[in-house]
Design brief:
single chain, mainly alpha, Growth Hormone, Chain: A, 2 domains, 0% strand
């Protein structure tokens, strides 16, 4: 296969191989840490988890990526990137270890969230640095395939880390000490963060840049310029209706997916099992099934776009969700919900691949980075906003007919809007 051949070619480059090792260990740790936080918030035996608590956890996990992300590059262009990986990994290991102590000590929630927020904020610098450093270890001819394979491998590592966290959490749940199993999983994440820091030492500190010679703007000026650049990206996007349209549709889909995620968490916690351990196991299955949907979409979407066109495929995804969601979701039973998890994972990822392609081809290259920064902000803020809305609508056990109907209506509205645009513009 060409993917395997390309990967072998890239792995022959020592710089790429070592940078990829840092990415894999870092994102493996991210997956462990994020699932540990989620299970602590939702499945701790002494906690009466509410949708509002879940919304708070999602804000901690996602908002730093949105709020810090666009400005991280200003500092990354002033610090040696190898040192960012080294000290960032060490700092995250220490902070994650401190979070584990806070979990065992049963401190007030605000202190726990502050510690977790610090870890996820540092993550943004590391992930942005990994992308910025890639051209330093791969030649221009191989850069496109490296940009495709490296983040994909990182996502798979994060998914594997999340699965490992579920397994360790269930296996360690035998102690009489409150929250010991949650703390053990967080400590596992801290170990992987430490490993990612140590792995960065295999690279020379000057290898990854940046080149610090020459004049540089003051940091205040650079931050102001970044904010101005985002505003310019928004204005440019307004002049590109195809990109703006699919981006709006994807934001709404992400909102719908986030609301349903909170619902499934509450169903697993309270509606389906009296034993929280069984509920946690089912949640792990739901995450795995949704991940399988993501993978299936990555395989099938290029073929589907070739047959239906970009707007046609995205319209089909939204319409399918509008039809299947009530049928699978309203019984509020584990079996149909797992099927829905696969379908929605497939639909969400298929739509995201389509959106990425439309934005990449519709936006001028000079504005592409700024538009994708806005895309990142919208993508994560929509998910957190959905959790907030779900907190208002969901009862304690997670069974909410109005929420399912509202989300299905959102999907139907997206499908109708895309169909209208497709007819008006005469495009596929």
């Amino acid at each position: 296969m060409s993917v395997a051949r390309d990967l072998r070619t890239l792995l022959a480059l020592s710089g790429f191989r070592r940078l990829l090792t840092v990415r894999l260990l870092s994102q493996l740790a991210d997956g462990v840490f994020q699932v540990a936080l989620a299970t602590y918030v939702v499945f701790s035996p002494e906690k009466q988890t509410s949708p509002a608590a879940i919304a708070s956890a999602m804000a901690v996990l996602l908002l730093p990526y949105s709020l810090v992300g666009p400005f991280a590059g200003v500092l990354l262009d002033r610090w040696e990137r190898r040192q960012v990986f080294l000290y960032g990994g060490l700092l995250r290991a220490v902070l994650a270890g401190g979070t584990a102590v806070l979990i065992v000590a049963s401190v007030p929630d605000w202190l726990f969230y502050a510690s977790a927020l610090a870890v996820t904020a540092v993550n943004r610098f590391v992930l942005a640095g990994l992308s910025a450093a890639l051209p330093r270890v791969v030649d221009e001819e191989r850069l496109v395939i490296a940009n495709s394979l490296s983040p994909t491998a990182g996502t798979l590592a994060a998914t594997a880390g999340g699965g490992l966290a579920f397994v360790v959490r269930l296996a360690a749940d035998t102690s009489d000490t409150p929250n010991a199993s949650d703390a053990a999983v967080v400590l596992l994440g801290a170990v992987f963060y430490l490993c990612s820091a140590l792995a960065s030492l295999r690279m020379d500190r000057r290898l990854l840049g940046p080149d610090l010679d020459g004049p540089r703007a003051r940091i205040g000026e650079a931050l102001a310029s970044t904010a101005q650049g985002l505003a310019e990206g928004l204005r440019h996007l307004a002049r590109r209706p195809p990109a703006a349209g699919v981006l709006a549709a994807m934001t709404l889909m992400r909102f719908a997916y986030g609301a349903l995620t909170v619902m499934v968490l509450m169903l697993c916690r309270y509606a389906w099992y009296d034993d929280e351990k069984d509920g946690l196991a089912l949640l792990g299955v739901a995450v795995a099934v949704s991940g399988a949907g993501f993978f299936a979409a990555a395989v099938l979407t290029p073929w589907a776009i070739g047959r239906l066109g970009r707007l046609g495929w995205m319209m089909t995804c939204a319409g399918t969700a509008a039809v299947l969601l009530p049928a699978l979701g309203l019984p509020f039973a584990p079996g149909p919900t797992l099927v829905a998890a696969f379908v929605l994972g497939f639909i969400t990822q298929g739509s995201k691949i389509t959106t990425d392609t439309v934005v990449q081809t519709s936006v001028d290259d000079a504005y592409r980075g700024r538009v994708f920064s806005l895309y990142d902000v919208l993508f994560n803020v929509a998910f957190v906003g959905a959790a907030g809305v779900a907190a208002l609508l969901l009862p304690a056990d997670g069974r909410s007919v109005p929420l399912v109907v509202i989300v299905a209506s959102i999907y139907a509205g997206i499908a109708l809007a895309l169909a209208h645009r497709r007819r008006a513009e005469g495009v596929r």
